[in-house]
């Protein structure tokens, strides 16, 4: 399969590039780099080398695939891919602090182990390293004006991210959130980075403006479909496949798309969320039944199909070439057709 073949080529090169940037440069900074490596999945809590789940590197993979599919050299785009992954991870560290999340991917979060001040600093470090990496594009033969455009795309994404995070945080204090508000939040917080990743890949390859626009639209629609599919799996997924309890999203009263849709349409559901606790299995099951009664799952699945179709249409319009084109289509199907 093209995706597995190219991932096996790209991901080790990406990991090596990132690890080289986080190598200790003086004994005094051993804990500093240790915290960075810990978050990225290369070290344990004592800073000893380890290999743990740190995510699938989907966003940098999108960037590299688009570069190759557009006729460019994927190795030339590696600094951009690193910048994308570091930007994503700085936001995760800050997000964990703001949400007071004790765990990420089954391990204690950076702030939980070393405190909020150090976690903020480590997140800032990744943000800064991302910007420094973009400048290295010129060392790979990318024209300075293109590197500058890549930097602007990355910065605009970071601004969108803060807007999305503002909405997400504000939702926690509100009983009612509209579907439109929710979609605006995931567009800024999730879809924007996927769009930036595909746009940057096309820019580095020197693709025509029309193709760049289609690649960006492809990433944007894919990001929306991916997040909504994740929302569905958070309630109706197979725990053995997703690795996450299907009760968690309801117990924590997470305002995912099915829940927001259901709350708009069900007085009974609004009463459940406004009054009693949702911690026991019976309460969770009652919420799920009410969501299904108002077709919340069907609505969310319809949105996944619509955005997936839009993503594929834009991908085809961009006219990708070769194995990378096949891999992009395969990745799209995997992301939005994940096992339940």
From TrEMBL:
<dbReference type="Pfam" id="PF00348">
    <property type="entry name" value="polyprenyl_synt"/>
</dbReference>
<keyword id="KW-0460">Magnesium</keyword>
<dbReference type="InterPro" id="IPR000092">
    <property type="entry name" value="Polyprenyl_synt"/>
</dbReference>
<protein>
    <submittedName>
        <fullName>Polyprenyl synthetase</fullName>
    </submittedName>
</protein>
<dbReference type="GO" id="GO:0046872">
    <property type="term" value="F:metal ion binding"/>
</dbReference>
<dbReference type="InterPro" id="IPR033749">
    <property type="entry name" value="Polyprenyl_synt_CS"/>
</dbReference>
<dbReference type="GO" id="GO:0004659">
    <property type="term" value="F:prenyltransferase activity"/>
</dbReference>
<dbReference type="GO" id="GO:0008299">
    <property type="term" value="P:isoprenoid biosynthetic process"/>
</dbReference>
<dbReference type="InterPro" id="IPR008949">
    <property type="entry name" value="Isoprenoid_synthase_dom_sf"/>
</dbReference>
<keyword id="KW-0479">Metal-binding</keyword>
């Amino acid at each position: 399969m093209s995706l597995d073949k190219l991932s096996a080529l790209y991901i080790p090169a990406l990991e090596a590039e990132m690890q080289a940037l986080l190598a200790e440069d003086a004994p005094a900074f051993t804990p500093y780099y240790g915290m960075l490596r810990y978050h990225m999945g290369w070290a344990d809590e004592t800073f000893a080398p380890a290999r743990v789940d740190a995510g699938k590197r989907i966003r940098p993979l999108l960037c590299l695939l688009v570069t190759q599919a557009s006729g460019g050299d994927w190795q030339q785009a590696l600094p951009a891919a690193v910048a994308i992954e570091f930007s994503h991870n700085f936001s995760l560290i800050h997000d964990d602090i703001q949400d007071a999340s004790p765990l990420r991917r089954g391990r204690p979060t950076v702030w939980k182990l070393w405190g909020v001040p150090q976690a903020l600093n480590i997140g800032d470090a990744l943000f800064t390293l991302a910007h420094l990496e973009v400048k290295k594009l010129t060392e790979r033969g990318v024209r300075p004006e293109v590197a500058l455009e890549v930097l602007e795309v990355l910065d605009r994404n970071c601004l969108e991210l803060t807007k999305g995070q503002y909405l997400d945080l504000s939702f926690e204090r509100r009983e009612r959130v509209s579907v439109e508000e929710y979609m605006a939040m995931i567009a800024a917080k999730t879809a924007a980075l996927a769009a930036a990743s595909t746009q940057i890949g096309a820019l580095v390859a020197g693709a025509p403006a029309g193709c760049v626009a289609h690649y960006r639209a492809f990433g944007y629609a894919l990001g929306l479909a991916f997040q909504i599919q994740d929302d569905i799996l958070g309630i109706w997924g197979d725990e053995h496949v997703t690795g996450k309890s299907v009760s968690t999203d309801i117990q924590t009263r997470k305002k995912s798309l099915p829940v927001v849709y259901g709350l708009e349409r069900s007085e009974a559901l609004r009463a459940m969320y406004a009054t009693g606790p949702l911690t026991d299995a019976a309460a969770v099951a009652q919420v799920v039944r009410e969501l299904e009664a108002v077709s919340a799952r069907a609505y969310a699945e319809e949105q996944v199909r619509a955005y997936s179709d839009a993503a594929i249409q834009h991908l085809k319009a961009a006219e990708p070439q070769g194995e990378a084109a096949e891999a992009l289509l395969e990745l799209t199907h995997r992301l939005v057709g994940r096992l339940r």
